[in-house]
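Risk register update: the risk that structure generation would not scale has been downgraded. Supporting records follow, first protein first.
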Amino acid sequence: MTEVRLLTFNALIRDDVPARLRALGPVLERSGYDIVCLQEVLHRGSARLLRRVTPGYPHRAGTGAVLLAGGLLQLSRWPVRRHRFARFPMAGPARTELLMRKGAQLAVVETPAGPLAVVNTHLSANRDDDWSEGNRYTGVIRGELEHLARLVTGFEPALPAVVVGDFNVPRDSPLFTRFAAAAGLRDVLAGDTSTTFRPTPRWPAPPALDQVLVRPAPDRPFQARARTVLRDAVRVADGRELFLSDHYGIEAELSFEG
């Protein structure tokens, strides 16, 4: 049995970014994660900071000279054989979020279990917190999920795949269920609707928005399990205690047979 350990984490684009990323680095170094998929790492300066504080992850996947496309960054202990960014179609309503150029980072990582397709994504937010069919953001999210499903099915079937990120869609939403079926993916945390977003007085019961889905290959089966992590505050360099993000992370373990 060969294990691949992965983390997906929305690192939060605002509020004490350098301090939180500096604190995140040692957490990742100690973690034993093999692949880390981050969202909301928009600036190249943040990516450079992460490179300095995560020397155990020499391989990277991120696209863009000044701003990282989609705010997506993948760190890996193993070689990233190829990667590319695919932008989602732009659709209204108008919002500043469109400046992030949201989409998906598609990579193939050479793991001890063989090549693995890793898709890191961040979908548009639903500013109304209403995922009903008639909501103004539902069409936007549906279009992005349909585009993402086509990207995932574009990987060769012989390549096992894991798709992770901040979907901004509840795990029990019909939108998400239809996407998983269309893409041929299994939701590792199906049935677990506990939140992945830190509750606030304004939003005391947020849904599970961060996801891990998998697609084993016919001749490379694996088992997968996942759980939420990075829930607690950490002490930063100036002595303050901060939460690493407004999201929790999700840790996934893929156990390949043979």
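Supporting record for the second protein:
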Amino acid sequence: MKKTFVLAAAALAAIATPAMAKDAPDTSVAIGDLDLTKQADQDKLDNRIDNAVRRMCRVEGFDLQARKLERSCRLAAEANAAPQIELAIAGAREERFAAIELDVQG
């Protein structure tokens, strides 16, 4: 099973005009190869998300308006990802504990 996170700048879309909202950026991050019960793999996930957010929110230009738009996009995407990360880690821990219980009884 291929596991991915879908990151979106949803908060940015909420404050943007309707035309901008439909063009709000999104991306996905693969997590199927990670064991999220391990800190090292959680760190890898954080790096993947950070890189994906940077690519997704990159804007043309270096003026103040462009920098503000990029920062808003990053903050929105990170806020969108946070609950997904927590759920994925909690789910991985639950799966691991369930497997341990089965092994002990089995």
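Residues 4-105 form one domain. On this basis the risk owner (M.S.) recommends closing the item.
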